[in-house]
Design brief:
The protein has 180 residues and is of the alpha/beta class. The protein has a single domain (21-172), classed as YqgF/RNase H-like domain (Nucleotidyltransferase, domain 5), CATH 3.30.420. It is built from seven helices and six strands; from the N terminus they run ααββββαβαβααα. It has helices at 3-6, 27-30, 69-82, 102-118, 130-140, 145-154, 156-172; strands spanning 35-41, 45-52, 57-60, 64-65, 85-92, 122-126. Strands 1, 2, 3, 4, 5 and 6 form a six-stranded mixed β-sheet that branches. α4 (102-118) links the parallel β5 and β6.
């Protein structure tokens, strides 16, 4: 059984009354067979994952080291085109009480620009505790704390967090028929 099926998927709903400038397209409804590119957006790195419905799996991709905002946007748009992704799914770092803080605003602003540059919709997935869970999974796989810290600098944790949030998104929408 996949990890996404074992935990309760976290689905993001914007706080009532908050302006949601990002398109509220449910990618799974508009494009049921679409490849989705998952993003764990940080200030230093962007973890990447890809859901391919033909394969029925979510895979981690490379982690992008952040450069400038414009370069990052262009690289993501190019990657989506190369991977034939129909949409992005970005983790949204909401606070434990469900409110949005400065990092959520940073992610929303970045995703609004990403929609404009790429022409693709962006959906959000609550990413609370995905980095913690990613670290826990790596430790369960036998990684030492020293190795975990070394690999965190390389973006392994960011990539795993992108996988987790995309698994949650896919599972919450019942797209995971073959997800294992």
């Amino acid at each position: 059984m996949c990890a996404a099926a074992q935990r309760e998927p976290r689905r993001y709903s914007p706080p009532s009354g908050s302006p949601d400038t990002i398109k509220t397209v449910d990618v799974s409804i508009s494009s049921p067979g679409a490849r989705l590119l998952g993003l764990d957006i940080g200030r230093k790195r962007i973890g990447l994952a890809l859901y391919d419905p033909a394969e029925g799996i979510v895979r981690g991709l490379d982690t992008l080291q952040r450069k400038t905002r414009d370069e990052d946007l262009a690289r993501l748009a190019r990657l989506a085109q190369e991977r034939k992704a129909a949409a992005f799914v970005s983790g949204l770092p909401v606070n434990m009480d469900g409110t949005e803080g400065p990092q959520a605003k940073f992610v929303r602003d970045f995703c609004l620009r990403l929609e404009r540059v790429s022409g693709l919709p962006v959906s959000f997935q609550d990413e609370r505790l995905t980095s913690v869970e990613a670290e826990s999974r790596l430790q369960d796989a036998g990684w030492s704390l020293k190795k975990l810290l070394e690999e965190k600098r390389k973006g392994v944790v960011d990539r795993m967090a992108a996988v987790l949030l995309l698994e949650d998104y896919v599972a919450a929408r019942g797209l995971s028929g073959g997800l294992s």
